[in-house]
Every structure is written in structure tokens, then in C-alpha cells.
Design a protein that fits this description.
44% helix, 18 strands, 4 domains, alpha/beta, five-stranded parallel sheet, 456 residues, Helicase, Ruva Protein, domain 3, Rossmann fold
């Protein structure tokens, strides 16, 4: 491995531009000068490597096609030999596959030809924020997802790495595993932390309002649009857009979302021109998107755009050693909210929690502890206060017991079916009231009924 003696900058060039077309290099150089940045140019991989060995840069821009190789080779070279240098690739119009490949190889971001001054400005701002320039000096940490289990340590480590990139991240995991919290950490630890974090529950938006909610609308674009309104993309400009339960998006909206992600621009309803937007896309769902792609319920091209890098959040049963720490933190918070003393968990309660399967994960643990806090008659919560189903029994307070790890989806479907049936029974069959009680939209409930094969 080549070792570089990285000297401190003394007024040298800020950016290395790698492109075999001289006019493009000059255009980029002039654009960077307008931003107050000096640059060097290289026409090949060999020239770029020689300059990287000699000088220190703050950013590298490289074309994908070079006379002596591919831009991806330079991305990999920099990832291995000059690890603290962000590199962005320049892709031709319509070549998103190259951009996705580059992001997976370690590129910080990509620019689409023709490169505009606004694109460069957004990229430079992100790069320098990531390198700690212009920050407030306050330390950031990733302690909000607590736990010392190997699974959680690995997840936090990956979150910290992902925060330094601009690549789209798909966060997978069961309900209640902390997918939105992980998304917020990626945002908070990254260069966009001072900009908006906009979280969208895709399953909670009526289908007929989706386009205006995502992209905004001009006054008079439709009945009731009595003023201009911004959508989620515009609200998240410069920051992060988190698409939760992205699997609930209908196919027509998936097409529009794909184009906005690819082209980094969108058109408001009723508008004749497009608006450029600079957002990082994070997405999540508890559903298996690969299965949905196979069943033609989710577009394959959108799946590949969202799933550039996958972050899997572990289930609570996979990190049972974290339960005592999590339970202590949750109990303290619950007791503080109720204004009472913080109880302790008895040995029997801790043992019961350690062997419970937690189909609802951390969210279910919080619900169990909240109920136990209300039921406990002393300053210690015992096992009987938790009201857990004994191991090996059929059904208990929290539904049927897990029959085996190989049938997880069947088990989750069974639990979901039971909860929906109970809600429908309590509402006298009124699906609107049942949806309200479950905290989901009517459309989401109808979809779940169809998916589970339940009669409406």
C-alpha cells in the first residue's frame, strides 16, 4: 500500500478535477473559483494519482470515463490510500446506474452533467461540513441507540460511517427496532445536521394527496389550493428526507419519486418549471421489499435507488443482553413523566424479560414497562407485574408464542391479524374507527386486510 505523507495545506489548491476534456475542466475550475476555491486538473488516472501523492486536497471531482481507466478505479484508489478525501463522480444524463455503483464503491456523492453552480455549491457545503469546517465545535455522539451487544455496536458503527456519506440508505428491521431513530442519527452525525430532517410516514398519506404532499402545489393547482404550498422535498432542501414505510407507496407515486431522486429536481403541481433540490434520501420499512419487487408491488428500479446501502436494525431478541440497560432507561423516563419514583426491576422480572421474544421489540418493551409501572404495588417490579405469556404457552397477553425462528413472517402476520380482529370487534366492524384505534390510516388498514386475506 502506498503511504502518503499528508502535509498541512498552505494556501494550495482545494479541489482536484479529473476529466480528459479540457473545456470541462476549465468550466469546473471557473465555477469553483466563483465559490472561492482553487483547483488542479488531471486528464487521466495516472495524472490524478501523481497529484494525490504530491498534494493534499479537500475534494476530488472525477468523470466516470477516463483514457486509462474508469472513474470507479479512482474512487477505490482514494478509498484505500487517501481515506480522508471525499470524492464525487460526474455522471452523464440518465446514467444513474453508474452513480449508484460509485456510491457503493465509496463515493461521497455524485453530480449529473451538465454540472450547475447550484449543484457544486451544495456539494461543497456538504463536503466542508463533513470535514468539520464551519461547525459549531460541539461534539456529536451516537449514544441514542443504547446497548453494548455486538449487534448494536455494529449498527452504531455503520451509522457513523454512513453519516459521512451522501449515499441513499435503506434501513430494514422489524417494527419497533428504532429505524427512525437510526435515520435521525445518520442525519445528526452528518454534514446536514443543521438543516431540516423531514420524516414522512408514507402509509399515512391519502393516495390522492400524495403528489402535492411530496412536491407541493401552486395556488389554484386544484380545488382548495388557495395559496402556494411547499412539499416534503422542498421542506427538506439542504437536509434529509426520511421515507418511513416506503413500501406503502402506490406504484404511480413510486414513478414520480424515482425521477425526483434520480434528477435531483421536481415539479410542483400546477407549475411549468422544475425546481432543483438538494436532499439526502433515507428510507425504511418493516416489509420485505425484495418480495414486494418479485410480486410487482414495488418498482425494482426504485428499490435499487433506495437500497444503495442497507442498514439492518437488530431485533430486541437478538440483543437480549441490552434489555437491563434499556429497561432501566425506559423506566426512568416513564417514572419521570408520571411524577413518581423510579422503581427497580427484580431478578425475576429481569429473567422473564430476558426469555421473552418481544415481537414488538423496544416499543413493546416500553409498553410492558408502562403497564408494570401502573400495576406494581411496591418500589420493585416483579415478574408477575409484567403480565408476560409464560414460555411454551399458546397465547397470552401479547398474543401467540413464537413457534420457531424460521416462521417469523408468519408469526408477525398472525400477531397483526389478531390485533386487527380485536380492533374491528371493539369498533363493531367499523373499519374507520378501527383504523383510528390502531393509529393507522383507513387506506393502510384496507391494504393490511387485503394482504392478510381478511374479509372486509
Amino acid at each position: 500500500m502506498i503511504q502518503h505523507e499528508r502535509r498541512n495545506r498552505t494556501g494550495g489548491p482545494d479541489v482536484l478535477i479529473v476529466d480528459d476534456e479540457e473545456d470541462i475542466r476549465e468550466l469546473l475550475e471557473l465555477s469553483l473559483l466563483r465559490l472561492g476555491l482553487a483547483s488542479d486538473g488531471a486528464a487521466s488516472l495516472a495524472e490524478a494519482r501523481a497529484l494525490l501523492a504530491e498534494k493534499r486536497y479537500r475534494l476530488c471531482l472525477t468523470d466516470m470515463r477516463l483514457p486509462d481507466g474508469e472513474g470507479l478505479e479512482l474512487v477505490r484508489y482514494i478509498s484505500e490510500h487517501v481515506r480522508d478525501l471525499p470524492v464525487a463522480v460526474i455522471t452523464a444524463f440518465g446514467s444513474m446506474d453508474n452513480a449508484v455503483t460509485a456510491l457503493k464503491a465509496g463515493a461521497f456523492d455524485y453530480l449529473a452533467k451538465p454540472v450547475s453552480i447550484d449543484q457544486l455549491k451544495a456539494l461543497v457545503k456538504s463536503v466542508f461540513a463533513v470535514r468539520g469546517e464551519g461547525c459549531d465545535g460541539q461534539p456529536r455522539d451516537s449514544s441514542s441507540l443504547v446497548g453494548h451487544s455486538p449487534a448494536m455496536v455494529q449498527a452504531r458503527s455503520l451509522i457513523e460511517k454512513l453519516a459521512r456519506s451522501q449515499a441513499p440508505v435503506f434501513i430494514s428491521g422489524e417494527s419497533g427496532t428504532g429505524k427512525e431513530r437510526a435515520a435521525r442519527m445518520i442525519h445528526d452525525l452528518g454534514p446536514r445536521s443543521a438543516a431540516p430532517f423531514v420524516a414522512v410516514n408514507c402509509g399515512a398519506i391519502p393516495e390522492n394527496l400524495m403528489e402535492s404532499e411530496f412536491f407541493g402545489a401552486r395556488k389554484g393547482a386544484f380545488t382548495g389550493a388557495d395559496a402556494d404550498r411547499e412539499g416534503f422535498f422542498q421542506a427538506a432542501d439542504g437536509g434529509t428526507l426520511f421515507l418511513d414505510e416506503v413500501g406503502d407507496l402506490p406504484l404511480p407515486m413510486q414513478v414520480k419519486l424515482l425521477r425526483a431522486i434520480q434528477e435531483k429536481r421536481f415539479r410542483r403541481l400546477g407549475d411549468t418549471t422544475e425546481t432543483a433540490v438538494d436532499v439526502r434520501i433515507l428510507s425504511a420499512t418493516h416489509q420485505n421489499l425484495k418480495v414486494m419487487v418479485d410480486e410487482a408491488r414495488f418498482r425494482q428500479d426504485l428499490f435499487y435507488r433506495l437500497n444503495v446501502i442497507e442498514l439492518r436494525m437488530p431485533a430486541l431478541r437478538e440483543r437480549s443482553e441490552d434489555i437491563p440497560l434499556l429497561a432501566g432507561i425506559l423506566l426512568e423516563r416513564l417514572a419521570m413523566a408520571s411524577g413518581g419514583p423510579v422503581p427497580r426491576l427484580g431478578d425475576g422480572a429481569l429473567a422473564a424479560l430476558a426469555t421473552y421474544s418481544f415481537p414488538g421489540n423496544v416499543r413493546e418493551l416500553e409498553n410492558i414497562l408502562e403497564r408494570a409501572l401502573a400495576l406494581a404495588s411496591a418500589d420493585t417490579i416483579e415478574a408477575e407485574d409484567l403480565l408476560l405469556a409464560p414460555a411454551g404457552t399458546g397465547e397470552g397477553v401479547h398474543g401467540p408464542a413464537v413457534s420457531g425462528p424460521g416462521d417469523l413472517q408468519d408469526y408477525l402476520d398472525q400477531v397483526e391479524r389478531q390485533v386487527i380482529e380485536e380492533a374491528l370487534e371493539k369498533s363493531g366492524g367499523n373499519r374507520t374507527a378501527a383504523a383510528r384505534a390502531l393509529g393507522v390510516t383507513f387506506r393502510s388498514l384496507r391494504y393490511r386486510l387485503e394482504r392478510l386475506g381478511m374479509k372486509e
